[in-house]
Structure to design on (771 residues):
């Protein structure tokens, strides 16, 4: 008995500890300044899905028709890397970029799913993902008669279109190994250093050798950004672009060059944006429904099941805390559907307790002592608790397997909820009922263990008690 | 036992509800949402007062993005439905709506994404149904007298269909008057109802099975009656707790999960009803026809 009490105390303290963790980490996270990097407890916030936090969800179709079957996976993962770099460059907090393989369910389309929490300007999001910087090196057009185009703008400034003056070479951004931001040691001007890979270095050497004394133009996105004159052949595969950049411009350019071109063309097939106010409304409503629902159930349990009801409320509170801690620690991405799943799982967690209490009451009616009734009640209720949850578990697993993000949000929470609720009902509720250590059965105890309008007084053995005494042997025989 | 004695009445009530639901399915129909069909949905809110509906319609018609449906939403907002539109088209819609219009949410789903969801839903549905049928078969593998185990399974499946058809019927009526469409959560609701309702039926059948084993009564009808008497309190208690919390979700929860919660609550209610008032009476009726 002493051991059991210690165990119950430990569980109670653990429950309080978990609750404390959930509360503290939430307070710590809320008091963070927007720019501050979370550390310690604050690094375990609830992870809200786009429908609650606001944000943009984009689905791209990748055109892999030009890629060999065996290389599809490689090009998809390098596509993901490129997009991830681009998204990161724009400072989105916790973006997610995922490849969805072509399978039967999506008619073999290779897709890329991009989630951008907090970004509600779709145009900006689409633009930053779709940007493909093209970098190429061009040499002077050997044809002296190439037509020249010039535009005179309204201020009378003549702008010569240089495109016809230069011709493409083989050297493009494809051969770029890395771009680096540098500063000129004398002028302090920002310059972009380019480092080519082995092949690029050879091409660059060839171009500079052939064009000593001439200019080589560096074009970015079809616009000349720098037209240096070649003084001598350059070996070693390094070049610099100095184009009167502001430091921020140079930094952005370096970022864009490093993020590179997309390995396969992509097209946007689906978008979803949730404004921050709508997300906030949904979150508040979800939390409110959960709290009110929980209180209503607690009231029901106390009024209907009395003392065991109180224990169930404690067990249920520990269950809620464990779930919240799991959401924070895993972390589970919470969506509106996920919150609904959580709320539903609270209802189901109560079910297990109710099944147990009803069994205990039956045992009491058949005249068993309270202590024995609790033991037998649990033993017999366990099978139905287990059985009644199996179909939920089967369904949750299938939904998680096949679902879209929205369905998975529900399925994962529901699955975790069903499993944890079984454990909490069997382990926690039982332990707490045991430590009451009720040996005697009197008016008070039978009132406390009664339910609704009836007390748990023993009634003469009749049809009601069928299946209690006798099925002990059946249970034993089964094992 | 009251339920068994009046079994014909209860089975008739269920039959009527199922027929009504099927009828409303044909009369009102199920409208597929953009999740499945593809299309776009834009929610806007005006900072001050919203312009008249036809003004909004006319200004968007200029863009020629095909058929649009504009519906008032909340106090100062509108929702606009159309075919799936590109990013440029969305931007131009927002431009013609003016500066006062704030975009609350926007969804555009390409037809291939919709088609994928349809396939995924069908696969999940088939797998869940198969999983549950196997589970029922497994649960009843040991009982074969006096009613063979496949009959328990058959009745459990009938109760399952009953529990799913009635919420669908309720959905068609509600959606006809309030403009709900079949979305992803509809599918999730159906599959969750399948899971929850079968477990309830299994709990009742489990008791019957147990009482047959310990030979509580020679008469099968009486055994079923006793079993119901033993389980009805807790069946009702467990589903009332779940109902309480689902009602909280319907009243206070987010708009996006309201219909979902209504369907689950209906499924929960009729799931409990069917396991007590339909499945067990049907079992007795099956047994009786067997005798004749």
């Amino acid at each position: 008995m002493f051991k059991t009490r210690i165990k119950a105390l430990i569980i109670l303290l653990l429950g309080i500890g978990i609750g404390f963790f959930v509360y503290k980490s939430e307070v710590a996270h809320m008091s963070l300044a927007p720019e501050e990097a979370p550390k310690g407890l604050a690094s375990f916030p609830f992870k809200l899905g786009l429908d609650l936090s606001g944000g943009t969800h984009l689905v791209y179709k990748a055109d892999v028709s030009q890629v060999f079957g065996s290389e599809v996976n490689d090009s998809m993962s390098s596509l993901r890397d490129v997009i991830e770099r681009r998204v990161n460059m724009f400072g989105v907090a916790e973006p997610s970029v995922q490849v969805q393989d072509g399978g039967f369910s999506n008619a073999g389309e290779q897709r890329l799913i991009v989630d951008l929490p907090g970004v509600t300007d779709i145009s900006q999001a689409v633009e930053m993902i779709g940007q493909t910087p093209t970098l190429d090196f061009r040499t002077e057009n050997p044809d002296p008669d190439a037509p020249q185009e010039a535009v005179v703008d309204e201020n009378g400034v003549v702008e010569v279109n240089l495109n016809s003056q230069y011709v493409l070479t083989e050297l493009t951004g494809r051969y770029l190994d890395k771009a680096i931001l540098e500063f000129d040691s004398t002028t302090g001007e920002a310059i972009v250093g380019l480092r080519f890979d082995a092949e690029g270095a050879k091409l660059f050497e060839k171009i500079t050798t052939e064009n000593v004394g001439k200019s080589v133009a560096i074009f970015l996105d079809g616009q000349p950004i720098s037209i240096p004159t070649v003084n001598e052949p350059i070996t070693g595969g390094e070049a610099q672009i100095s184009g009167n950049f502001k430091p921020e411009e140079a930094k952005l350019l370096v970022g864009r060059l490093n993020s590179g071109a997309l390995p396969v063309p992509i097209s946007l097939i689906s978008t979803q944006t949730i404004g921050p106010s709508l997300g906030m409304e949904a979150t508040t409503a979800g939390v409110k429904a959960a709290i009110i629902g929980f209180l209503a159930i607690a009231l029901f349990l106390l009024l209907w099941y009395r003392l065991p009801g109180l224990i169930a409320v404690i067990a249920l509170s520990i269950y809620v805390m464990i779930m919240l801690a799991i959401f924070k620690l895993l972390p589970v991405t919470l969506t509106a559907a996920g919150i609904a799943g959580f709320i539903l799982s609270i209802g189901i967690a109560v079910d297990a307790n109710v099944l147990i209490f009803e069994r205990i009451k039956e045992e009491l009616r058949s005249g068993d002592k309270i202590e024995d009734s609790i033991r037998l009640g649990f033993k017999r209720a366990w099978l139905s608790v287990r059985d009644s949850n199996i179909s939920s578990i089967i369904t949750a697993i299938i939904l998680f397997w096949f679902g879209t993000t929205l369905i998975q949000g529900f399925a994962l929470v529901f699955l975790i909820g069903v499993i944890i609720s079984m454990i909490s009902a069997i382990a926690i509720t039982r332990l707490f009922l045991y430590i009451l250590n009720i040996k005697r059965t009197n008016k008070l105890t039978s009132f406390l263990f009664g339910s609704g309008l009836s007390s748990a007084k023993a009634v003469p053995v009749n049809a009601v008690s069928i299946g209690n005494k006798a099925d002990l042997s059946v249970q034993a025989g089964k094992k | 036992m009251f339920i068994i004695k009046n079994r014909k009445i209860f089975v008739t009530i269920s039959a009527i509800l199922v027929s009504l639901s099927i009828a409303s399915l044909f009369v009102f129909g199920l409208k597929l949402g953009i999740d499945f069909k593809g299309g776009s949905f834009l929610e806007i809110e005006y900072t001050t007062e919203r312009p008249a509906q036809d003004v909004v319609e006319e200004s968007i018609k200029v863009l020629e993005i095909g058929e649009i449906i504009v519906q008032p939403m909340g106090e100062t907002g509108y929702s606009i439905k159309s075919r799936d539109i590109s990013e440029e088209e969305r931007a131009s819609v927002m431009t013609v709506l003016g500066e006062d219009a704030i975009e609350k949410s926007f969804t555009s789903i390409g037809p291939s994404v919709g088609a994928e969801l349809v396939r995924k839903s069908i696969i999940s549905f088939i797998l869940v149904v198969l999983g549950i049928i196997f589970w029922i078969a497994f649960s009843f593998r040991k009982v074969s007298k006096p009613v063979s185990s496949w009959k328990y399974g058959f009745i459990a499946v009938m109760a399952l269909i009953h529990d799913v058809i009635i919420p669908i019927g309720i959905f068609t009526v509600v959606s006809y008057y309030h403009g709900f469409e079949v979305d992803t959560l509809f599918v999730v609701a159906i599959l969750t109802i399948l899971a929850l309702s079968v477990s309830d039926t299994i709990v009742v059948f489990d008791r019957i099975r147990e009482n047959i084993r310990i030979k509580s009564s020679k008469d099968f009808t009486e055994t079923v009656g006793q079993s119901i008497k033993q389980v009805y309190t807790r069946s009702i208690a467990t589903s009332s707790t779940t109902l309480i919390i689902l009602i909280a979700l319907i009243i206070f929860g987010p708009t996006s999960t309201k219909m979902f919660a209504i369907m689950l609550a209906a499924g929960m209610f009729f799931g409990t009803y069917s396991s007590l008032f339909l499945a067990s009476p049907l079992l007795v009726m099956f047994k009786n026809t067997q005798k004749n």
User: Anything to note?
Assistant: DSSP finds twelve helices and 15 strands in chain A. Residues 276-329 of chain A form the longest helix (54 residues). The domain at 135-259 of chain A is CATH 3.30.1360.200 (Gyrase A; domain 2).
